[in-house]
Amino acid sequence: QVQLAESGGGLVHPGGSLSLACATSGFNFSAYAMAWFRQTPKNGREFVAASTIGVGRTYYSDSLQGRIMMSRNEIKKTAYLQINRALLDDTAVYYCAARRGRIWTASAPEYQYWGRGTRVIVSS
Question: Is the pLDDT of residue 57 over 90?
Answer without folding.
Answer: no
